[in-house]
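BUG: 3D viewer hangs when loading the predicted structure for this chain

Environment: internal workstation, default settings.
Expected: structure renders.
Actual: progress bar stalls at 90%.

Input used:
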Amino acid sequence: IRSSELGASHATPYSLVFDKKGLYYNPNESDILDLLNSDDYIHDREFLNAAKSKLETILDLEISKYNPPSASQHTSLGIKLKKRVAILGQVDADAAIKYGNPDNWSVEDIIKLAKYENPDAEIIYRPHPEIYKKYQKSKFKRKRIEFFAKISSPDEPLPEFFKTIDHVYVINSLTGLEALLRGIKVTTLGTAFYAGW
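Structure tokens produced before the viewer hung:
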């Protein structure tokens, strides 16, 4: 849970990640990977019940990484007429891309892959909010992307956006984890800690 507004706007963080070995976006070593590879927690009923309770709270309260206030309770994508696939953008220069994108996937390549694998679906690209609001530079080219996908504003809260999404594509974004927590199929093209288990 990062904050209400964007970190790039210097919004106060609601939580911080501490890891003795690395960080969650480093595919080589981290405390979260050790925890996921351990059998200890699988047999700990108290741990599992606490985790389930926390997950239910996150979903019930529609908590997300960013939690901007929203005037609308309806998705900006309009009426859903067919399968809806979303590609979730990331910041090009972010450490998560540096460490977690070994095959150098670009946003444009991911959108083309999503279209190829889902030819009859509505393809939506949701840029990272820091790119969309121009806090960060990006290789994002709107006209090239609009040829394959509809661009959706990241101003809409993510939990609301996900309500009509059937499948998500990411490199290794934490928004992919948020989609998984909501029961949405996720294709990861990088080395996300939550993928491949």
